[in-house]
Amino acid sequence: MNAAVYKGTALVTGASSGIGATYADRLAQRGHNLVLVARDEKRLRELAARLGTQYGVKIDVLRADLTSKEDVRTVEKRLREDEAIELLVNNAGIGPKGPLLNDDPDYLDTMIDLNVVAVNRLAVAAAQVFAERGRGAIINIASVVALVPERFNGTYNASKAFVLNLTQAINAEVADKGVKVQAVLPGLTRTEIFERAGVSSSRFDPSMVMDVTDMVDAALAGFDQGELITIPSLPDPRDWQAFFEARMVLAPNLSHDRPAERYGVRRAEAV
């Protein structure tokens, strides 16, 4: 594939390894020019050189630490001002070191800065500029733990639930403005995220850990099919639909002018 198949530029965060690097490879293969964002400039440049040679696309490297507000704003500026960018892959994030009760609060603050604050800033910027232009797409990488918060570190689970909710809310605002949105909810995926947090992926049942290339290929297939929520390991999409519909059953009763009778609260008299 060569640059003649050009489909616009994709900005990928956390692109130096793992899920981000795999997205970079697959998007370059599809003919997208790339802006690769991560802290490790050396690895980014090595990846850029390889993909540029292999696929004949243009690749820019943007070194940024997305736990830094200044660096986040640098990436945001690129998103807002570079009209060639038509796709944001909001992937940068870190995982927990262990159970919440054993984790370092300072590390958890850093996790929130990266997994929530930076993701929100970039997703909002992309949504605003893409909606104004009438074109573009946002892929936010969440996690299945957003759906089962009891099974993992609380702060990490909450950060990924934020990403899921953010994606659904953004979609409600931009779906009719030419902007495509997707949240990807991987399960355990074979990447460096475990080792960086001091945890070996070998501690998990191998049947639960997906290869990163399989995960990204499935996620992009879901993107191509127009899925708002993609869970790469979920065999039957009707299970997600049932989950969604069960949530919607609650909607009519989430806000009333009086407490439910089961609480036995006497209604306050109007003054």
UniProtKB/TrEMBL annotation:
EC number(s) reported in the record: 1.-.-.-
Name of the protein in its database record: SDR family oxidoreductase
Annotated GO MF terms: oxidoreductase activity
Pfam families, per database record: adh_short (PF00106)
Organism: Sinorhizobium chiapasense
Keywords: Oxidoreductase
UniProt cross-references to InterPro entries, sorted A to Z: NAD(P)-bd_dom_sf, SDR_fam
Enzyme kind, highest EC tier: oxidoreductase
Entry keyword annotation includes Oxidoreductase: yes
Family: Belongs to the short-chain dehydrogenases/reductases (SDR) family.
